[in-house]
């Protein structure tokens, strides 16, 4: 039996609950009243309005796609624009039996069964009810006429004019600007369905992909009344789309063409950038392809050819090509050695033609088997002496090498706005333990000193590392866009500048690089001799196949595709660096013989005027005229 | 106890028991009649809204059968029995919600399902719709009313845990309904008015501050679109524009069954699920809508009567909260379709197509019936 007190409590609770229930009931009745009056407003007060809309006509909301932003080169020449094109659209809801209608289209235009299958797939990709889905682009005059004549038996089929991306420069910028293509199902899931409701293309690679949001713009829409056949009777309301932002690139069409010409049909990669601003002025990956093919859907045959070509035209060598940097890394290694204090500008190493670790038999060969005798830093860079750098790497150790090279941008993505860029690899003890479950061996340190071993870098990273020597450690991420809309791109993740104990270390490395081209024993002195200005550079070779101990590299015996890649990095003029270049010639064998002339041609195109002399803005100030010692 | 008293009581007891077979089955006749009316109406409208799709109608009828079965079974349990098992049930469902968060099955951009392939696939959030008011009712029923600060705070945290878990799925509609179902227990339990008013007034400055200092522009845009869907005619606004045209063109008497045009030409997406009221309004007009609201009103009134007549505090709190939550379903759905409220995915109870929601709702009414039919006549004296 309940206690009396609890009984009293129950009574109180019951009263409390009853009061609340009454309040609740009043609320319920009030809100039902609200619903009824809303319905009264819609169904009685606004009845005329809604019933006209519904009985005679239908209201449609049509998205108006924004115009995609244009892309210009640094001098305002168009790289990507939008061209009107006629496409065939099908509105499923108006077509009735749309598969029969497709049969009709195929019959009228005399197309193949394969194309019909493609059409069916595209129709099914429609996203909203009453959305006209484009199934065929680039209709010819004749095709348009045929459709018009047969319009009566093709309900729901329309010829629509729309703007389609066009790349007037063809293959020149396929690897930097990239291209747009039809939105695929995977992308559909990630894109804002509203903003892309009128858009059928999206940036797939390069600048087109990286700046997709800026280039795309904001969708507009109009509410229209249509009759039962879907003809638009009048526009009720219109909100204009906001066009995408135009992008001006730092790339220069003239330099791009000159760089491609310099490669002379060979496979390879070139990056040229302005050290003071980080602007990339030329970016070549040869062979290239025509990006226009991808815009309206590339045919299986064309794509197969591009994909399967042994020359790999779709492969972006500048951003995705990974090469052991070889001797091109020596100037940066020299800076590391100087700053760490393991070498001085005057310290010397004797080169008998090889280097040996203490108590180890293995000989690490210099490229010059006869040896260069006593070598100091200047000569080591000029002659590209391997023994000197084996010795230095041994003294420096892998940990410090990893630390310094990372500061030069190796093993990480260096660009600001290049979507495809890969990080490359700057090995360390931790990396090797994680990757191979093995400790780091001293021999691996030695070959790291000449840029061999596990180390892998992209041409862009090599250009940036070279630019860092030119700017004495000032870090600006290389970028392709000069301005997006009217704003310059912002680096949200800046890299700290390289601070050395003594800034003169930069001069020693630069001087060594200058000797490569202008010194009596420089490896690329032939190229330097014909230069109208002073160049600092460094050659390198990247092995394609490994050579066993004691075996000799014999190019004659190797298949052409197995020959070494030729590398060259440079900046000029030495007194006031205006441009930094990295060149990679696939299977070119000789850095100084093949890649260096290419680099010089690129720099000539940028620095010299028609008369073959330095452009006035790049010339040294009058007081400092004359050759440097 | 006098013999006289004894006899009177037993006679009344006998009378009541004889009076109704339904009583013995623990079924409330009035509720059952109203529910059956809604069921019949639902199948009618669904036939039209689905474009004369018999399969769909039969499926829905089967769900009704299942739901009524569930209701019948649940009505047999005594409320005391439910109260005993509620804490365990609450913990179990919260555990399931956490499991959804960790290993849940994702469909249509939301992770709501637990999927054991070949065995079962279900949404734990659905159970919470009934467990939540039960838990708070169980907690408050053994405390003194109106609830103190401490008890209110504990109740709120019991509500917030599943609320946040479901909100993260993301399922705004369900999480808000679950929040409401818990909050209504507090309301029925006599939560002090000044706290209610205080909480409401506190929300305003917090929202204003969030707006100016916390939200990014794109988030603001989302909130604006949410509050005014018609500003986004290519997204959710499309549905609202079309559903308003459908409702409005129905007029007073409607276009007649199967004669709606807006809803039949695929203009109205989701016409047989969340937006089904637009079909009803188009084909049966204002009269049809008012009739439907009348039936809903009667159901709710009956639920509130059951609340007042319940003998235990647990029963009162639970019945009141279930009834009020039911009304929230109705109001939010119709308000949303007619463009009064933001679009959250809430089906129209008993009318929208969908088996899960039917079974859950009917289970809720099973609980109401249990509360009403397990009253002890001795105790009332």
From TrEMBL, chain B:
The gene is mrdB. It comes from Stutzerimonas stutzeri. This is Peptidoglycan glycosyltransferase MrdB. It catalyses: [GlcNAc-(1->4)-Mur2Ac(oyl-L-Ala-gamma-D-Glu-L-Lys-D-Ala-D-Ala)](n)-di-trans,octa-cis-undecaprenyl diphosphate + beta-D-GlcNAc-(1->4)-Mur2Ac(oyl-L-Ala-gamma-D-Glu-L-Lys-D-Ala-D-Ala)-di-trans,octa-cis-undecaprenyl diphosphate = [GlcNAc-(1->4)-Mur2Ac(oyl-L-Ala-gamma-D-Glu-L-Lys-D-Ala-D-Ala)](n+1)-di-trans,octa-cis-undecaprenyl diphosphate + di-trans,octa-cis-undecaprenyl diphosphate + H(+). The keyword tRNA-binding does not apply. HAMAP family: PGT_RodA (MF_02079). InterPro entries: Cell_cycle_FtsW-rel_CS, FtsW/RodA, RodA/MrdB. Signal peptide: none annotated. GO terms for cellular component: cell division site; plasma membrane. Belongs to the SEDS family. MrdB/RodA subfamily. Its EC number is 2.4.99.28. GO terms for molecular function: lipid-linked peptidoglycan transporter activity; peptidoglycan glycosyltransferase activity. Its main location: membrane. Keywords: Cell inner membrane, Cell membrane, Cell shape, Cell wall biogenesis/degradation, Glycosyltransferase, Membrane, Peptidoglycan synthesis, Transferase, Transmembrane, Transmembrane helix. It is found in: Cell inner membrane; Membrane. It is a multi-pass membrane protein. The chain crosses the membrane at residues 25-50, 56-75, 87-108, 172-188, 195-214, 284-305, 317-344, 350-371. Peptidoglycan polymerase that is essential for cell wall elongation. One of its GO terms (biological process) is cell division. It holds the Pfam family FTSW_RODA_SPOVE. Pathway: Cell wall biogenesis; peptidoglycan biosynthesis.
